[in-house]
């Protein structure tokens, strides 16, 4: 997993609530047995007509936003399915950070496993960043995970919260399974006891 | 005296490690896998040279992508190449890592959330995960069950644990005597309509009260299944005699003295009378009307006697815009009566409503009647065992005589990964769980209802009040 420290990226607005995982990556692209290559299909049904031509109005088809790395969206982003194809598709397109007032639980966890930082902020702060994003013209935000700040184009910084453990894993690019396996002795002991139970 | 909830008890019993920062390691008793969200997990294991820690605690069934017609040729005859590769990959991965796999030609094959309970793989007090958000279904047995992503599938395969933070407790009290026509589906839609699709985020829901105790195991599975549609990590119902009766003599449950010991333990699994919940709501099932969704979010719920909402009456700008978008997508006019909405397709199936009781309820409504000319209707049983049972009861004849298609088990048109999907602008009365844009096919329009309501709509070609039927 790529380490996540500080980066500056173009910000795109997706001013909708309840953006679900079927929107982020429709099911026809779930037939892959790979993690890579889904960026071409992210937001497919909003981005392309059935004949494959681009829908010009959609934000990621506009010249200002084709290189976006940060997405600002409405409440309850990522609701629906557990498909990790959703963060894979966002990452493969180039997104490293999604900012919204709230996220669905499974999607939120899936992001961290793939080097994407999901940031939940109060609506008033999201509104400011949404306004920045709507300016287009290559407007960038700076995300500093170590300092836990977002720097707006006008220089204002917005602080955000993140679970310290998850933050550390992102910064170090740590492998979750490797971390857990360091606790193998505890798992062994727990499992040996649990396997004795009639109902397990 | 203890004041803990059912969720607290199951959580505590599975805690392998707890860090000072609240991050915990939870032991996972049962892991279900399917063809869509597991290939990359096995790929990850291979790349890092890791093994599956306890192969016997994982069970595999292909369901998402599997065809529901023309299966006689077996997996190698599946026409869609990508689907075939995915299903073959699951078979190969299970063989390579020593995991029990129920193949497409096995009578027990079905939707993973139907097959798990049928096999007795699901039991009270266990932690159960699967790379599918509707894993919440298994909470009907008093198991802590939830969906996980593929990285977590790999983590469970490698370590038999999951890194988690504890969720909060939310009790949904459902009181009153539900009339016959009010099903678990209506209760589920009522809950989501009340708290919204993010109302359960950060919580585990425990459903309790007389209307929950009165539900069959099938009904409890329907209700817990849709907990994720309210954003909750999991849904739970305390196990009782109905639970034990359902499980007794299933293939993978304990037998003899072990069964008695298990039941004795299971009887301890309920929230203490003094337990404190972070949030509670109460719904009166006696006063619920049959419910239908009008929009593109499961919280867009209205009574069968209601009217489609008018965005002009909504103050909140984000909600108004979402409503306008949903109405345009669904091809509906503000304020039109629900019963005037004409449908083109009916889908009875999915991990929400494809069990024997669901098929019986639908068959009862259509017996001796014909599907409306404008409607194409299909039934996709949840498993081979459900299908066999239904055929033994003659339900297949009832459906076929009425003009329904009678298919082989799988997820089918709930998520439309296989050939079963809506065409653009087609409108479907569906017993599934999600009405998102494009869920049942690009530009397809989904209305979520109970099996009886879907069946009645099939006969009339539009939504009707099952109470008048």
Structure notes:
The complex is a heterodimer of chains A (200) and B (469). Chain A is globular, with a radius of gyration of 19 Å. The mean pLDDT of chain A is 96. With 200 residues, chain A is α/β, with parallel strands linked by helices. In chain A, strands 4-3-2-1-5-6-7 form a seven-stranded mixed beta sheet. In chain A, 32% of the residues lie in helices and 16% in strands. Chain A is built from eight helices and seven strands; from the N terminus they run E-H-H-E-H-E-H-E-H-E-E-E-H-H-H. The two termini of chain A are 35 Å apart. Chain A has helices spanning 21-24, 44-47, 85-93, 105-112, 123-134, 164-172, 176-181, 184-194; strands spanning 6-14, 70-73, 97-100, 117-120, 140-144, 149-151, 157-159. Chain A has a single domain (6-175), classed as Aconitase, domain 4 (Alpha-Beta Barrel). Chain B is an alpha/beta fold. Chain B has three domains: 6-164, Aconitase, domain 3; 168-240 and 271-287, Aconitase, Domain 2; 291-468, Aconitase, domain 3. Chain B contains 15 helices and 19 strands. Chain B has helices at 6-13, 39-48, 81-97, 112-119, 150-159, 184-195, 210-213, 217-225, 241-247, 257-266, 317-330, 356-366, 384-392, 395-402, 451-460; strands at 15-18, 24-27, 30-33, 58-61, 100-102, 127-130, 144-147, 161-164, 168-175, 203-208, 234-236, 279-284, 291-293, 301-303, 345-348, 376-379, 404-406, 427-430, 445-448. In chain B, strand 13 and strand 14 (301-303) form a beta hairpin. In chain B, helix 12 crosses helix 14 (395-402) and helix 12 (356-366) packs parallel to helix 15 (451-460). Chain B is globular, with a radius of gyration of 21 Å. Classes of the chains: A alpha/beta (200), B alpha/beta (469). The interface between A and B is large, with 56 and 78 residues. Chain B: Residues 8-461 form the Aconitase/3-isopropylmalate dehydratase large subunit alpha/beta/alpha domain.
């Amino acid at each position: 997993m790529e380490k996540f420290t500080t980066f500056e990226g173009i910000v795109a607005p997706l001013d909708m609530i309840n953006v679900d995982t079927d929107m982020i990556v429709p099911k026809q692209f779930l037939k892959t047995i790979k993690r890579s290559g889904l960026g071409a299909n992210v937001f497919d049904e909003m981005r392309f007509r059935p004949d494959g031509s681009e829908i010009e109005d959609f934000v990621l088809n506009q010249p200002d936003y084709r290189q976006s790395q940060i997405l600002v969206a409405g409440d309850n982003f990522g609701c629906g399915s557990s498909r990790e194809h959703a963060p894979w598709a966002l990452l493969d397109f180039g997104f490293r950070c999604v900012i919204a007032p709230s996220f669905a639980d499974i999607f939120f966890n899936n992001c961290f496993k793939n080097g994407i930082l999901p940031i939940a902020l109060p609506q008033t702060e999201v509104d400011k960043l949404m306004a920045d994003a709507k300016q287009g013209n290559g407007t960038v935000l700076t995300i500093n995970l170590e300092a836990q700040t977002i720097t707006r184009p006008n220089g204002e910084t917005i602080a955000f919260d993140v679970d310290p453990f998850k933050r550390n894993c992102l910064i170090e690019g740590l492998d979750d399974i490797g971390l857990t396996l360091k606790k193998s002795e505890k798992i062994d002991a727990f499992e040996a006891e649990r396997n004795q139970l009639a109902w397990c | 005296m203890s004041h803990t909830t059912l969720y607290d008890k199951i959580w505590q019993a599975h805690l392998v490690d707890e860090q000072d920062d609240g991050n915990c390691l939870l032991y996972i008793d049962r892991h279900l896998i399917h063809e869509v969200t597991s290939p990359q997990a096995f790929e990850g294991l291979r790349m890092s040279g890791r093994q599956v820690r306890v192969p016997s605690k994982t069970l595999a069934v292909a369901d998402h992508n599997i065809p529901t017609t023309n299966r006689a040729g077996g997996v190698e005859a599946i026409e869609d190449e990508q689907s075939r590769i995915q299903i073959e990959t699951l078979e190969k991965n299970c063989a390579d890592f020593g995991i029990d796999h129920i193949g497409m030609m096995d009578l027990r094959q079905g939707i993973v959330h139907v097959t798990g309970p049928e096999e007795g793989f699901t039991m009270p007090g266990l932690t159960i995960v699967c790379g599918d958000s509707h894993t919440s279904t298994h909470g009907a047995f008093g198991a802590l069950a939830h969906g996980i992503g593929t990285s977590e599938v790999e983590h469970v395969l490698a370590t038999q644990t999951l890194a988690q933070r504890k969720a909060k407790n939310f009790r949904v009290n459902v009181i009153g005597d539900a009339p016959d026509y009010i099903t678990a589906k209506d209760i589920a839609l009522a809950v989501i309509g009340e708290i919204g699709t993010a109302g359960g985020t950060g919580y585990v829901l425990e459903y309790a009260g007389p209307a929950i105790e009165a539900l069959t195991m099938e009904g409890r599975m329907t209700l817990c299944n849709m907990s994720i549609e309210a954003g909750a990590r999991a849904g739970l119902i305390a196990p009782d005699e109905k639970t034990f009766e359902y499980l007794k003599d299933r293939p993978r449950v304990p037998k003899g003295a072990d069964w008695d010991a298990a039941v004795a333990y299971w009887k301890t699994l309920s929230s203490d009378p003094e337990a404190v919940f972070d949030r509670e709501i109460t719904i009166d099932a006696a006063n619920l009307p049959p419910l239908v969704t009008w929009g593109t979010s499961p919280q867009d719920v209205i009574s069968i006697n209601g009217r489609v909402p008018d965005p002009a009456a909504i103050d909140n700008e984000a909600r108004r815009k979402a409503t306008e978008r949903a109405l345009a997508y669904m091809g509906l006019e503000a304020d039109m009566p629900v019963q005037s909405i004409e449908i083109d397709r009916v889908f009875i199936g999915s991990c929400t409503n494809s069990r024997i009781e669901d098929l019986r309820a639908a068959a009862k409504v259509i017996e001796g009647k014909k599907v409306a000319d404008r409607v194409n209707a299909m039934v996709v049983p949840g498993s081979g065992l459900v299908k066999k049972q239904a055929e033994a009861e003659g339900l297949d004849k009832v459906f076929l005589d009425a003009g329904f298609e009678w298919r082989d088990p799988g997820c089918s048109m709930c998520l439309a990964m296989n050939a079963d999907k809506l065409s653009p602008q087609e409108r479907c009365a569906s017993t599934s769980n999600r009405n998102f844009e494009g869920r049942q096919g690009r530009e397809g329009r989904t209305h979520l209802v109970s099996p009886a309501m879907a069946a009645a709509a099939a006969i009339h070609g539009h939504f009707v009040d099952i109470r008048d039927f």
